[in-house]
Amino acid sequence: MAGGIILALIGSACSPNDHSINKIKTLGEIVVLTRNAPTTYYEGRDGLAGLEYDMVTAFAAHLGVKARFVIKDGAVDMLGALMRGEADMAAAGLTRTGRRSTNFLFGPSYQSVTQQIVCRRGGPSPKFVEDLEGVEIMVTKGSSYAERLQVLQMVFSQLQWRETDAMDTEQLLEMVWEKKLECAVADSNIIEISRRYFPELVVSFDLAEPEPLAWAMPLQSKALQQAVEKWYASFKQSGELDKLISRYYGYVELFDFVDTRAFNRRIGTILPRYLNTFQLAAEKHGLDWTLLASQAYQESQWHKDAKSPTGVKGIMMLTLPTAKDLAVENRLDPEQSIYGGAKYLARILRSLPDEIAEPDRTWIALAAYNVGMGHIRDAMELARSMEHNPHIWSDLAEVLPLLSKKRYYRSLKHGYARGWEPVRYVNRIRYYQDILERASMSGEDAIQPSWRKITS
Questions:
Q1: Can you tell me the distance from the alpha carbon of 85 to that of 218, in angstroms, rounded to the nearest whole number?
Q2: By CB neighbour count within 10 A (0-12 exposed, 13-18 middle, 19+ buried), where does 11 fall?
Q3: Is 376 helix (H, G, I), strand (E, B) or coil?
Q4: pTM (2 decimals)?
Q5: Residue 427 is inside which H or E element, if any?
Q6: 299 has catalytic annotation
Q7: What is the C-alpha separation between 81 and 77, in angstroms, rounded?
Q8: Where do the structural domains in the chain lie, given as residue ranges?
């Protein structure tokens, strides 16, 4: 009898509509709804990734449970499933709107975004809401964009749009880029990411004031909401949130239409000549070929005869002393240069302190390739004195520009350095690598068609 009562109590505590912390800990997992997108949750070269994937995983570890992600197509499916008690929360770049707040609890805001009208170069160029009359617009069904347009329609009665549940926002932006749709509405962070792949996208104007992104929970999940708030306060204070924001968005502000379009074009015209060499050199030295190729592009734009006034030469722009040390006889020989650059970068990676974890290890190694290991050690020393973490790239990136200021560099062993250059260098390589990874995601056999599509 007692056993039956206990089982009944457990069954009651774990009922589908019970989203308490006790239930989550009893089951040993927290069920999270999300969507497959570059701003939230996706499979990268090193496994699952995404800002919200990393945050949820950290929260789950804090609770001592595992996170189980369930992929949904869009906000309507996600919030409907959450309301039916199919998950504990939704973490998917959801905007906390007034309408949604009446049906769900929300955690603290971790990022602010702005809804924007986005069109394509050469197409419609509206500047104000009244200019949208007659412009073909499509948004995802049940999205915060649809909510905003409905509010605006009360004032601008001629405003029209279509809603779809067959495509997500990223797909709609691709349609705009392909000239199959005139304009769309998207959050600023999604646009920032998408313009790297579709550089002809143009932001026409902001459709609303900045809005907060937050995790959504059922109305009965007050205990879970409080747990999220408590965890988030310490997560943010520790600097972990800033570290993740830097990882996923620290380089998107580099967008340059001409440069991005040129890079996408050269992926299909120049890179194929050296692709095999990049792959073999990277494999030999334990590197990712997309990283090596992206670094080479930053160095020389993949020009084998590249030279600088300071005497560095070749695809990997090696100095003469470095080339001699690496046994590179001809810096203008593409194969010798690529293998030499890969060997040099791998050597730097091995020389870094064991405490530096990936991906920071790679970013710091790239900075050392650019500015020299001596200046990196100086920056680490300066970071410690300023109570920054010298083993985290985002902290080191704040300190490096100070190496150009006398009040800082005069007390350092290696003196003055143009410290902003390695920061820009690393960020641009990250930017190029992200584009290149997307181009090669379909596998080697599909690389060329993928590139032709991007550069059309």
A1: 7
A2: exposed
A3: helix
A4: 0.62
A5: helix 420-440
A6: yes
A7: 6
A8: 2-106+215-249, 115-208, 257-454
DSSP string for 108-140: ---EEE-EEEEEETTS----SGGGGTT--EEEE
Other beta carbons within 10 Å of 157: 9
Estimate the share of the chain in helix, then strand, then coil, as percent rounded to the nearest 5: 55, 15, 35
Return the number of other C-beta atoms located less than 10 Å from residue 169's C-beta.
25
Angle at 95 between CA 48 and CA 107, to 5 degrees: 75
Residue 218 and residue 90: Cα distance in Å, rounded? 9
* pLDDT at site 453: 38
Closest alpha carbon to 397 in 423, 427, 361 = 423
CATH: 3.40.1620.10, 3.30.310.50, 3.10.310.40, 3.40.190.10. Which one for 115-208?
A: 3.40.190.10
Would 2-106+215-249 and 115-208 be classified into the same CATH topology?
yes
Tokens of 229: 């708030």
**Inter-residue long-range contacts of 155-163, CB under 8 Å, 24+ positions, other chains counted:** 155/129, 156/129, 156/130, 156/132, 158/133, 159/129, 159/132, 159/133, 160/133, 161/137, 161/185, 162/136, 162/137, 162/138, 163/138, 163/139
**Rounded to whole angstroms, how far apart are CA atoms 220 and 422?**
50
For domain 2-106+215-249, the CATH superfamily is Periplasmic binding protein-like II (3.40.190.10)
Give 9's pLDDT tier (boundaries 50, 70, 90). very low
Choose among 328, 325, 327: nearest CA to 315.
328
67 burial class (0-12, 13-18, 19+ CB within 10 angstroms)? buried
Reference 26, options 39, 48, 7, 41; nearest CA is 7
Residue with tokens 């390589």: 429
Question: How is 197-248 classified by DSSP, letter by letter?
Answer: T-TTEEEEEESSS-EEE--EEETT-HHHHHHHHHHHHHHHHTTHHHHHHHHH
User: HSE on the CB side for 436, CA within 13 Å?
Assistant: 25
Tokens of 347: 């050597």
Q: Which tokens hold the place of 161?
A: 């749009």
CATH no. for 257-454: 1.10.530.10
Options 86, 299, 335, 444, the catalytic residue: 299
User: How much is the pLDDT for 264?
Assistant: 86
Residue 370 exposure: Cα atoms within 13 Å on the Cβ side: 25
Distance in angstroms (rounded) separating the CA atoms of residues 49 and 43: 6
CA–CA distance from 45 to each of 172, 290, 436 (Å)? Answer: 25, 10, 12
Model confidence pLDDT, tens digit, residues 293-321: 999 999 999 999 988 766 789 999 998 88
Instruction: Give the pLDDT score at 254.
Output: 58
